[in-house]
Amino acid sequence: VHSNVSQGCQGGCATCSDYNGCLSCKPRLFFVLERIGMKQIGVCLSSCPSGYYGTRYPDINKCAKCKADCDTCFTRNFCTKCKSGFYLYSGKCLEKCPDGLETNNHTMECTSIVHCEASEWSPWSPCTKKGKTCGFKRGNEVRVREIVQHPSARGNPCPATSESRKCIVQRKRCQKEGKGKKNREEKRKKSSKEESKETKQENKGRAARRQNREQRENKNKTQPKKRKAPNKEPNTAPIDTAP
């Protein structure tokens, strides 16, 4: 270390020299040596750069280098990100993952192997043939299931998600679409006619009742009213009771 030590340093240095840069740092800052050609210069940083990890001591906080295969680390023996060509597993950088694990080229980590998982089968579908459920004796029925967990690169592949088998149904004729439509139309017309007939009968009954009522009213108007007979007054003459 050069003997020219200064107390009026800049950039977070507590003590420094013109030749070696920072010699010590202000509180809470990390001291790290940066190589410039054949020369190392001390600098003070708020956090350690990539490839270094920080350690705190009572007198100084230092940045130390990670292992050669480690890009970033928490301590020297615990890596958090590996350099290219290595896979991270439990804080270590490995060229090959242990048995039971597989490499993840996206995260550059060793991960557990994930096998495919499928749901339970659905109930069998109705027996059909060429999209129809009638007009045949032998057809096919189908059931399906869904994939609930897709596999990883080395995981077991997914099974089939659909299954088909032969089926037998009681033979029956298919109802023609035109005939069925015609029957529905006839039923609708018949129902409409019945409703119209009932409506006519009701209207006819109301008209007859109205006509009878009018006739009774006219008859009452044309007939003369009968005069009431005068009440005869009772004979109140005195009765002669002399002998």
TrEMBL record:
One Pfam family, short name: Furin-like_2
Region (Disordered): 169-243
SMART domains: FU (SM00261), TSP1 (SM00209)
Subcellular location: Secreted
Compositional bias segments (type: Basic and acidic residues): 175-220
Domain called Spondin-like TSP1: residue spans: 116-170
PROSITE patterns on file: TSP1
Alphabetized InterPro entries for the sequence: Furin_repeat, Growth_fac_rcpt_cys_sf, R-spondin, Rspo_Fu-CRD_dom, TSP1_rpt, TSP1_rpt_sf, TSP1_spondin_dom
Listed GO MF terms: heparin binding; signaling receptor binding
Domain R-spondin Fu-CRD: 11-110
GO terms, biological process: positive regulation of non-canonical Wnt signaling pathway; Wnt signaling pathway
GO cellular component labels: extracellular region
UniProt entry keywords in alphabetical sequence: Disulfide bond, Glycoprotein, Heparin-binding, Repeat, Secreted, Sensory transduction, Signal, Wnt signaling pathway
Function: Activator of the canonical Wnt signaling pathway by acting as a ligand for LGR4-6 receptors, which acts as a key regulator of angiogenesis. Upon binding to LGR4-6 (LGR4, LGR5 or LGR6), LGR4-6 associate with phosphorylated LRP6 and frizzled receptors that are activated by extracellular Wnt receptors, triggering the canonical Wnt signaling pathway to increase expression of target genes. Also regulates the canonical Wnt/beta-catenin-dependent pathway and non-canonical Wnt signaling by acting as an inhibitor of ZNRF3, an important regulator of the Wnt signaling pathway.
Assembly with partners or alone: Interacts with the extracellular domain of FZD8 and LRP6. It however does not form a ternary complex with FZD8 and LRP6. Interacts with WNT1. Binds heparin. Interacts with LGR4, LGR5 and LGR6.
Family: Belongs to the R-spondin family.
The name this protein goes by in its record: R-spondin-3
Name of the encoding gene: Rspo3
